[in-house]
Amino acid sequence: MISSDYIIGLVDGEGSFYVRINTDLKRRNKIEFKFSVKLRHQDKEILLQLQQFFGCGNVYLQKDNRPNHTDCYRFEVNKKEDIFNIIIPFFEKNYPKIESRKRDFELFAKIAKLSNQTEVDFKEIQNLKQQIHWGLAQYGKSVC
Q1: Which residues contact 126 (CB under 8 A, 6 or more apart)?
Q2: What per-residue confidence (pLDDT) applies to 122?
Q3: Closest by alpha carbon to 4, among 106, 100, 97, 75?
Q4: Backbone conformation region of residue 2, classed left if phi is above 0, alpha if psi is from -120 to 50, else beta
Q5: What domains can you pick out in the chain, each with its CATH number?
Q6: Mean confidence (pLDDT) of the chain
Q7: Which of 15, 43, 78, 140 is the most buried (most CB within 10 A)?
Q8: Within 10 Å of residue 29's Cβ, how many Cβ atoms?
Q9: By C-alpha distance, which of 70, 73, 78, 44 is closest to 60?
C-alpha cells in the first residue's frame, strides 16, 4: 500500500485540482469538481494503488496521438460525494508541498465549501476558479 507522503509527492508532480462551472441550464450540477493524477501508460499500477488507497475514482486510458507523446493513464475522482468526503479531507490533513499545488487545492476546497451553501455566489466562485492554475495565467492560458 502506498503512503500519504508518497501520494503528496505524486500529486505535487502530476496531480490536478479542477473546477468547472457548468452554464448548461439542463445540467443539474452547476459546479463540477475533479481531482486527477496522470502518468505514462507504464505506470498504471501506481494509479490503481491510488484508487485502492482512496477507495474511489476510476483509472482509464488517455490516448495521445501527438508526435513525441505516449499514451497515459489517468486516475480521476469527480463524484461530488467522494470529493467532499474523501479527497478534500485527505488533503486538508496532508497539504501538497509545492506552493502552487497547495494554493490550487486551497482554492478548490474553498470553492467546494462555497458551492454547498444555500445561496451560491457564482461570481465569487468564478473569481476563485480563475485563480486556480495561476501559473498559466501569466501566459494568457487557462484550464477550462
Answers
A1: 21
A2: 77
A3: 97
A4: beta
A5: 4-137 (3.10.28.10)
A6: 87
A7: 15
A8: 12
A9: 73
Residue with cell 493524477: 37
Task: Please check whether residue 37 is in contact with residue 49, taking contact to mean a CB–CB distance below 8 angstroms.
Answer: no
The 3-state secondary structure of 3-57 reads: CHHHHHHHHHHHEEEEEEECCCCCCCCCEEEEEEEEEEHHHHHHHHHHHHHHCCC
Distance CA 129, CA 100 (A): 14
pTM, rounded to two decimals: 0.84
The whole-angstrom separation of Cα 100 and Cα 114 is 21
- The x, y and z cell numbers of residue 42, run together, are 507504464
Distance between CA 35 and CA 90 in Å, rounded? 12
Q: In angstroms, how far is the first alpha carbon of the chain from the final one?
A: 33
Q: pLDDT tens digits for 17-63? A: 999 887 666 666 578 899 999 999 899 999 999 999 999 999 999 88
In percent, the amount of the chain with pLDDT more than 90 equals: 60
- Strands 72-77 and 31-40, how do they pair? antiparallel
> Which single residue is written with the C-alpha cell 505514462?
40
C-alpha cell at 43: 505506470
